[in-house]
Amino acid sequence: RRCGKPGRNRAEGPGRFPARRNFRFFDGIVQILVNVASRHRRLALSLRHPRHCAALFIFLLLLFSSPARAAKVLIVGDLHYALVAGVAADIQLALRSQVAEYQVSEVKGQLNAIVEREYARVVVALGMDAVAEALRLPPEVAVVYGLVVVPPENAGLNVTGVYMSPPVSEYVALVKRYLPAITKVSVVGSRIMMKTLFNSDPALTTANDVESPADLVDTVDRLVDTKALLLLPDANLLTAQVMTNIYLFSFRKNIPLLGISEAGVKQGSLFALVFDPKMVSRQIGEKVQTILNGVDATEILASPPRGYNLYINSKTAQKMGIAIPDEMLQKAKRIYQ
Predict the structure, then answer these.
(1) Domain boundaries, the chain
(2) Of the CATH numbers 3.40.50.10090, 3.40.50.280, 3.90.1530.10, 3.20.20.80, which one belongs to the domain with range 72-164+277-299?
(3) Over the stretch 220-242, which tens digit does the pLDDT of each residue have?
(4) CATH 3.40.50.2300 fits 168-274+308-336, yes or no
(5) What is the SS3 string spanning the chain?
(6) Ranges 17-31, 61-75, 185-199, 315-329: which has the least confidence
(7) How high is the mean pLDDT of the chain?
């Protein structure tokens, strides 16, 4: 793999031509052509001239560096982070095409030029910084995003991808199956989050739009009759102070908090559904391969992960008198006590 270094791609490796061409290989090619051309005296004399051999060498170098060997897929992201690097590597494993990786810091303001240089057909943007750069690309370049909480706003028709947050319906399905005593779930989040993630049974859930951290705290304080709180992930709203207030409310009113992350469960949430990086990588790879196979990106809908990791806090359940069945516990990737 490579991060923004021109001239290297996934096609390099054992048994393939390396980025630094083997000059002995080209010497051999030249000698073969000289031998073949010996049947034609004029061509043979031409090839024996050093300048003409040099010109032939340059021609062959350009030939083997032609667009046919360029990367069809560019992966852009902050690859210094292990999560991003791991997802990028797994995406490559899912593809049957040449792939090049670039640090997002190296493509700022010049991603379109890099796409043209690489003759890339698809750009995979991992993380919001990479997505922001990819959204500036012309519509003929397909963009597949990943490692974003929800689909980016103002995305063009050439943009699709996999977002990380589970829809509210995923939480509701678990509650209905394993925790029937929870008869009402109050969902709290921004309008943007609600638009994407709130798609659940209105008999069991209520939506509460908020616009600021203070608004969120005030809204939660009024939800004293609910049976559970589900916060939608929004870094602009869920500050450290807000989360402290929410946890205090949760334990004081004996109302369990659902979501947002494994760290949230460790701090006191009853349970959370968290995206599986391996699953997301495979889904992104499938979308990219579908585009490479000739399907237009406009025909491929953005989607949440197909599966999630379940994290449970059994101590929270015990304190609130919530009985979690063994079947649900067995599904958990980790149980905090």
Answers:
(1) 1-69, 72-164+277-299, 168-274+308-336
(2) 3.40.50.280
(3) 999 999 999 999 999 899 999 99
(4) yes
(5) CCECCCCCCCCCCCCCCCCCCCHHHHHHHHHHHHHHHCCCHHHHHHHHCHHHHHHHHHHHHHHHCCHHHCCCEEEEECCCCHHHHHHHHHHHHHCCCCEEEEEHHHHCCCHHHHHHHHCCCEEEEECHHHHHHHCCCCCCCEEEEEEECCCCCCCCCCEEEEECCCCHHHHHHHHHHHCCCCCCEEEEECHHHHHHHCCCCCCCEEEEECCCHHHHHHHHHCCCCCCEEEECCCCCCCCHHHHHHHHHHHHHHCCCEECCCHHHHHHCCCEEEEECHHHHHHHHHHHHHHHHCCCCHHHCCCECCCCEEEEEEHHHHHHCCCCCCHHHHHHEEEEEC
(6) 17-31
(7) 85
- How would you list the strands of the sheet with 205-209, edge to edge? 205-209, 185-189, 228-231, 257-258, 271-275, 308-313, 332-336
For 39-63, how does the pLDDT look when each residue is reduced to its tens digit (9 = 90+)?
Answer: 444 444 454 555 555 555 554 454 4
